[in-house]
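Lab notes, practical 5.
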Amino acid sequence: MPVFPVLTFLPMSATILAGAFAIVLLNRYASNRRRPHELMWGIAFVLFAVGAACQVYADVNGTWSPMTARVYYLTGAILNVAFLGLGTMYLSFSRRVANVGLLVVLLLVAMSVFVLFTVPVDQDALKQEAGWKAVTTMSTTPRLLAIISNSLGTLLVVGGAVWSGLVFWRKRVMKSRMIGVFLLAGGTLFIALGGTITGATGLRNHDYLYVTMAIGILIMFAGYLQTIRPEPVAQPRLREAERTQVAG
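Output from the prediction step:
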């Protein structure tokens, strides 16, 4: 009979947080001004939630299956940070530049789906705690795709934050958005920190990765809330302009 390991609460918390964040983002996208960065970030957090849910499923069943390993690696290791970076492009750069990024990400999605669902799976590795590694032991292509995606995605998130921060600071405008993009970058780096610590310390149980993932998601959610926070100086300036127009 399947059991519920105590440490499964860690990936489960990440699943719930990422899923809730995705619902907020996608709901705002559908009901508001259809801002593309909200759509891309919403997709990113759906991918976070799916990846963490695969870990929960494997924990409860006591083993990984080829399907859960493939889906976990596709959503949790390759595509999520790419969509985070794409969302930052739509927030910080011109629509034309961001659309080029969209084409690149869609190409990455097509390549990743093809590779992950055709690569051979190591059946013995599925029985280990980090059974998702079964898709990388017999082929290095999935790992290469993950390195490329995470490197570029993180560079875009952090680079977009730095760029936006410098622009907003120089013009003394959109302070809330500047804080928001820095928090988004910080949350992304915090999630990456979990993988770095695990790799450096040799921890065998990768459930501990979900501690930094859950905290990182909360930091990014706080950052997103800052990006949509109205600027307090906008309304007084608008009223002053209206008075000037009426007086004239």
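Observations recorded by the TA: Residues 3 and 96 are 51 Å apart (CA to CA). The chain has a mean pLDDT of 82.
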